[in-house]
Structure formats: structure tokens, C-alpha cells
Amino acid sequence: MTQVTRQSLWMMLVIACAVPLLTALTPLLALAHDVAEGDKAFVQSIEGPAIFPFLYLGAKHMVTGYDHIAFLVGVVFFLHRLKDVVLYVSMFTIGHSITLMGGVLMGVGANAFIIDAIIGLSVVYKGVENIGGFAKIGLKIDTRLAVLVFGLFHGLGLATKVMDLNVSPDGLLTNLIAFNVGVELGQVLVLTFVVFAFNIWRKRSSFEKYAFAANCLLILVGIWLTTIQIQGYFAS
After folding, report:
1. pTM of this structure
2. Predicted confidence (pLDDT) per residue in 81-140, tens digit
3. Cα torsion angle, 76, 218, 205, 194, sign
């Protein structure tokens, strides 16, 4: 059986298994990355600097952010060297830090559904790139630039959610920095686990065997996330 045939079979198998599962999870996915009502009430009650609560909220938002995690999984999927992981994650961090801090301080936000739909597309992009989809059609994309750009959208999504919390202007800058640092700590925590797991998996023969199918699943997840947000936009 040729490599192309095996990849096609894996893609069909992934689709057959993933679609029912994603359909069942749709209600959970639609709500999972919003800020909990208890957290909203707590934040709205804060006056002045509150470093540790905002550190916690930032870390929690990243650790529970399935869309952010899916994108980062795609980014590090084929990265073997630590310096490459640091480079790409730094590009992502720079992007979302700029729009998170700038967006909140300047009061610039966007429709959360549209931003989250673009984040879903970022997951699709990484999955397609990882299976060589762009190379097959002769399209060359600077991955570092793409990660930076999608980082900007991720940060704008965070800024929109922070502004929706109606955070007090008293101590805003301090709390915003704490939230951003919390996001980074959450990102480090997630990536430590993901990179460790990939390093173990790459040593097994199953990695080469299932890598294509895993990225097909990543593409499906991205499409599904985008679809959910588009549906939410038209329903709102």
C-alpha cells in the first residue's frame, strides 16, 4: 500500500471517528473557554491592584483554553529542538501580549465570536501546514510570521474577554500585567506537558505511523471550533 493511500485511509478513519464525538461535545465547546460567572463576579468586586488573583485567572484561562492549546500543539508538533520551541512560542507570546495589553489599555476590542473563529482557523492552518498541505500547492508561508499574526488575534480575543469583565480602572495596569504573566505561566505549564509527551511519542514507531492522522484530527477540531463560533455569531 502506498504512503498516499495509507494517508487517505487514515484521514477517512479520523473523520468517521471524530465527527460524532465533536458533535456530542459541541455544547461544551461553545461554553468551555468563557470566563466563569464566579470569576466575573470576583473580578468586578476588586478595587486596586490584585496581583495574585489576576495571575491565577490568567493561568486558568490558558490552561482551560482548548483552542489556544490546540494551536500550540500544532505549533510544537514537529519541533525537535528546544531553541525552535522557544522561538515559535516567543513569537506567539509577543503577538498576544501586544494585543492583550494594548487592546485593554486603549479600549480596542472585537466581536468575541469572530476572534474565536479566527483562532479556530489558526488551528486549521497549523494542521494543514504540518501535513504539507501548503507545500503541495506551492504556497510558501513564513511560519514564524504566521505564528506571530495568529498570536495577535489570540491576544485580541483575550483583551475582549478582559474588557467584558468590566475590570476597575484602579490598578488596571498592574492587574493586566499580572493577568498576562499568568497567561504565560499557564502556557509554560501546558507546553511542558505537551513537549514532554511528544518527546516520548517521537521515540516510538507509532509517531511516524499516526502523525498524519493526528494532524487531520487537528484540522477537524479547528474547523469545528470555527463553525461553533460562526454559529454563535449569527445566533447572537
Report:
1. 0.80
2. 888 888 888 888 899 889 988 988 888 878 888 988 998 999 999 999 999 999 888 888
3. positive
